[in-house]
Amino acid sequence: MAEVRRKSGKPLQVNPHKLSQPMGATLAFLGVDRCMPLMHGAQGCASFAKVMFTRHFCEPIALQTTAVNDVIAVLDGGDYSISESVKNIGDKVAPELIGVHTTGLTETKGDDLRGVASKIDVPLVYVNTPDFKGGLESGWTLTTQALIDQLTEPCDRIDAQKIVLVPHVSLQPIEVEKLRDFIEAFGFKVVAVPDLSSSLDNHLGEKQASLSSGGVTVDALKQLADAAFVVTVGASVKPVGATLQKKNPAIRHHHLDHVSGLQGTDALVAWLLEASGREAPPPVVERWRKRLQDAMLDSHFSIGQTRFLLVAEPDHLAAMAASLREVGGKVALAIATVDSPILGDIEADQVIVGDLEDAENISAAYDLIIGNYHTESLAHRAEKRAVMRGFPNYEEIGNALKHDVLYEGGAYFLFEIANAAERMREAQVHHEREQIKLGRAVSLSG
After folding, report:
1. CATH classification of 153-284 is 3.40.50.1980, yes or no?
2. pLDDT tens per residue, range 320-338
3. The whole model's pTM is what?
4. Which of 35, 307, 322, 356 is the most buried (most CB within 10 A)?
């Protein structure tokens, strides 16, 4: 097991890569069809989230703010700001749902979201997401729980073929789609909550809309409680299973920490065979398993001699570390945004909750970086190569369609990492040759 240091030992973060709870909440609400996220706080908080997600997904992002400042928060309170914002949104775009979530300013003020929501006669879900607590994962999870708790209707019957899929926040839209299709291949009907696979999947719509387009519908959210199973993927969303079971105790909960690599996907297939009563998986599933096995053999030599720095949300760290370790990759350092029980299960030399300065201070310990856009400057300073993963990624387009999960995505992930490792070694050899040539030239001139 990894040596886990829960904190990096510093009194502050110098070069952070952490994202806030309100951003996680915004992303979750964007996975609901025709939903308008309403960030209750200062205008800059919403502007930052909107710009980040717009650049990452290369898509217009629907997001509104109550535009509270410190003076309004103290003298006027938040009730009026929320009510007026909800009224303006309803007059302009008529959403199916408004998702109100807080920030540090309004949480410090102590605004009563539940009380305000009870006075507003429009479809609304509220959730407390102060940005001085938690991070992207917890914001996503709290919002998912709020959607179920406030919208899902209690039920006492079961649809034996229905599964509610709850993905963690770091799964890209295409990964949610691939996972849903994979489960449906075993004969089930799947409802993903939240569902970014049809709202932020880089599809070209008929026109640019002012609301989220695609995702799980409000009607589907109301009818979740007749599912036979709820499947949670990622330690951060595990509590959502219990939230849904409160609506119908007959629902069975199956949890997976990740669905990456051979072992992670095998665990899902084994459960699907048991739940469906099938004796064998569909032929396409078996074929992709064999392809992943071949990919593991082909990439073993490149990845096995590479030391990695991983920078991501805890659930994403666990998934990537598992895929790399299966083919002999050594994770020298894993840096998480926040603390999580899953960190103790990551096989790495060292796991810390810290920032990119911590990684820069021990840059001799690793060769290749896998992390978000913020690791690019670290890679330049430390003269390392970096592979982009996680939020945000401003360097590359097509993030929504990049997938690392299941047998298929696992093969693509290993190929990309192995190729990056080989290019890194080629660059090192070239640099060493140039240094030798330079040394000879200096010697001759002397």
Report:
1. yes
2. 999 999 999 999 999 999 9
3. 0.93
4. 35
